[in-house]
Amino acid sequence: MPTTAPSPKLSAAFEQGGTPLSDATASDSALRRFLHGLPGVDAVGLEARAASLGTRSIKTTAKAYAIDLAISMIDLTTLEGADTPGKVRALAAKAVNPDPTDRTTPRTAAVCVYPDMAATAVAALAGSGVKVASVATAFPAGRAALDVKLADVRDAVAAGADEIDMVIDRGAFLSGRYLKVYEEILAVKAECARADGPDARLKVIFETGELSTYDNIRRASWLGMLAGADFIKTSTGKVGTNATPANTLLMLEAVRDFRAQTGVQIGVKPAGGIRTSKDAIKFLVLVNETAGEDWLDNHWFRFGASSLLNDLLMQRQKLSTGRYSGPDYVTVD
Fold it and tell me: Which of 75, 99, 152, 165 is catalytic?
């Protein structure tokens, strides 16, 4: 399986519209020409396909498999001003052992916290195999000077975070300053490097609800991938419109096409608003039918969620016992 390359530079052998991808980032004007030269998005067709795939019926053993897979893909998240070390430790315990009554329940992929809580999460999850993800770059608005954003990343990486979730400068993107956004992603990627261990993987958050159009989401996807993102992520979960089947489908098409041209595989993380098992399974169908089976793994696909896990656990219990346990049988995050 192709893996993400450590360098954002792409071989000139891979071309888009006759222009080497490595040349697309040579200047602000070149990057603008490349991004605006991408095919326009058929919004009606995109939404119709997303809706159609969402009608697929998944039952019995396939449903049980999908629920376990979805649990294993969750970035169990707490990103509140009232977060405490105790809450983070409790969330870490739930990530490692989501259902204390059934030890066959998969662990979640990661626990996602603010940088000042990363060390607490790292200590709580030591040896578990559950990753620590940390939001950074003045999450969620991203309104800070670059040196402040980079210091935010350095703090999280120094604390032991395995993954960094950064937000792009939406103001710069929407005003057409694509090279500024590109160079900021490059700078953050450089701060993810470690001398004494594996680099932290970088998830680049677009805040799709603020990008307004599907064309902008496609452009942001390619911009993030060109800059070396390991994952592209829909949203922070802090605005009105977050992950939707349509915007996630569009990003899945982007990573599929990017790998077809470059051999580099990029992950996708929808975040915000995915609360039920039914919703999660719809997203897994999107992954399978659009990007393919290679992405049906928590190394390449994640859910940014907290309440989703409880519904998955309740549905899992119902499949195994025949009874619906209800919300009182799962912990409140």
Answer: 165
Distances (CA, A) of 289 to 63, 264, 295, 305: 16, 19, 10, 22
Contacts of 162 (CB under 8 A, 6+ apart): 110, 131, 132, 133, 198, 200, 201
| Positions in the chain whose pLDDT score sits under 70 | 1-20, 324-333
Please name the amino acid found at residue 52: S
Q: Is 269 a catalytic residue?
A: yes
| Two tokens, residue 11 | 């071989």
Query: Contact 161/114 with Cβ under 8 angstroms?
Result: no
Evaluate the omega torsion of the peptide bond into residue 6 and state whether it is cis, within 30 degrees of 0. no
DSSP H stretches of helix in 231-276: 245-262
Catalytic residue among 269, 279, 282, 311: 269
Q: Which residues of 115-140 are buried (b: 16+ CB within 10 A; e: fewer)?
A: bebbbbbbebbeeeebbbbbbbbbbb
Give the closest residue to 227 by CA, choosing from 198, 194, 197, 264: 264
pLDDT, tens only, 177-233: 999 999 999 999 999 999 888 999 999 999 999 999 999 999 999 999 999 999 999
The yes-or-no answer on residue 155 being catalytic is no
- The tokens describing 45, both together, are 């067709």
Catalytic residue among 149, 233, 282, 311: 233
Rounded to whole angstroms, the Cα distance separating 139 from 166 reads 7
CA atoms of 132 and 306, how far apart (whole Å): 15
- For 65-113, the DSSP string reads HHHHHHHHTEEEE---TT--HHHHHHHHHHHH-S-TT-TTSPPPSEEEE
* DSSP tally for the chain: helices H, then strands E: 13, 10
